[in-house]
Amino acid sequence: MKKHNFSAGPCILPQSVLQKSAEAVLNFNNSGLSLIEISHRSKDFVEVMDNARNLALEHLGLQNKGYHALYLQGGASLEFLMVAYNLLEKKAAYLNTGTWSDKAIKEAKLLGEVVEVATSKSDNFNFVPKNYSIPEDADYFHCTSNNTIFGTQIRTFPETKIPMICDMSSDIFSRQLDFSKFSLIYAGAQKNMGPAGTTLVVVKEDILGKVSRAIPSMLNYKVHIDKESMFNTPAVFSVYVSLLTLEWLKDLGGISAIEKVNNQKAELLYNEIDRNPLFEGFVANIEDRSKMNATFNLNNDELKATFDDHLKQAGINGLNGHRSVGGYRASMYNALPLESVQVLVDVMQAVEKGA
């Protein structure tokens, strides 16, 4: 039976990428050696790292604009601290739209004053705050573009005179934006571009070197830039699979092409959630709904066993909501085909007919 993988992360990857990466584990570049046993300093892997860094910048339209792409470790969770270590001298401004921005704020407070410009925490993060002001004397402004747990997404980013930092872990490469508006972008690979184990950081070099504190080498962006993401042993497999995924995306036509498919998937599912009387969306405002993570509930708990059984029979995997929210969450990352969303909609309609 074909599986339809709606897992929130680690998430679905293109079948062609899985095939190529599996082959590389056994025999990389016809070397007779496995990708995961060769030296990370070898010519073959240095080429992988260089291509992965360059292709990330190409997709984002940031080549030759003063940006560097890095593949680091520790996930977005370490970036919560690294951002503050490298950029926070006195005060930083944060928009709090979910669990992950909440955690980012906690780490930043270790190193300086944090101004929370707005939050939707009191409403269980079911909307994205708007019409807030950003203090111009802050060292930077931090936001989270997409909230996997609650299913919200920032559609319009604010204009600000200070550096804008964005955690794009769950929607990077999924939609066209003016990425030059951001001074630093970071994203765990395991949502849209590869397996867990590496984190993409895209940073404009001119924002660095302005804090007075001593920065430990492993937390210093300038160290990683100077060493071209090879200061320490990188996550070889994760970087390679990320490169394959970025190549797959380029072959499709890039971000503009995948955005059209992502819009189709989101429209198909949200139309059914709104139409079907058995289901209700979690997000309060339609304009705040995430196109990556659709969160919804059954209106009748007595139908949960029936719905779950239908999901299992249809081969649908990973639809349970986050433990802190409950309900259901359909994660529709780049590699999820439109066909899988149609299967989910068919199940929702079948349960409605039988209710």
What does this structure look like?
The chain is α/β, with parallel strands linked by helices and 355 residues long. The chain folds into two domains: 15-252, Aspartate Aminotransferase, domain 2, CATH 3.40.640; 254-354, Alpha-Beta Complex (Aspartate Aminotransferase, domain 1), CATH 3.90.1150. It has helices at 15-26, 43-60, 75-87, 99-108, 221-226, 236-252, 255-275, 304-313, 338-354; strands spanning 4-5, 67-72, 91-96, 113-119, 141-144, 146-147, 152-153, 164-167, 184-188, 199-204, 279-281, 293-298, 316-317, 328-331. Strand 6 and strand 7 form a beta hairpin. It is globular, with a radius of gyration of 21 Å. The model has no long low-confidence stretch (mean pLDDT 97).
Topology:
Layout: E1 4-5, H1 15-26, H2 43-60, E2 67-72, H3 75-87, E3 91-96, H4 99-108, E4 113-119, E5 141-144, E6 146-147, E7 152-153, E8 164-167, E9 184-188, E10 199-204, H5 221-226, H6 236-252, H7 255-275, E11 279-281, E12 293-298, H8 304-313, E13 316-317, E14 328-331, H9 338-354
Parallel strand pairs: 1-13, 3-4, 3-5, 5-8, 8-9
Antiparallel strand pairs: 2-10, 6-7, 9-10, 11-12, 12-14
Helix pairs in contact: 1-6, 2-6, 3-4, 7-9, 8-9
Quick recap of the structure?
With about 350 residues, this protein is of the alpha/beta class. It has helices at about 15-25, 45-60, 75-85, 100-110, 220-225, 235-250, 255-275, 305-315, 340-355; strands spanning about 5, 65-70, 90-95, 115-120, 140-145, 145, 150-155, 165, 185-190, 200-205, 280, 295-300, 315, 330. The chain contains nine helices and 14 strands.
How much strand content do the residues show?
A: 15-25%
- How would you characterize the largest beta sheet? 7 strands, mixed
How many DSSP-defined strands? 14
Spans with pLDDT under 50 lasting ≥5 residues? none
Structural class call reads alpha/beta
Shape: globular
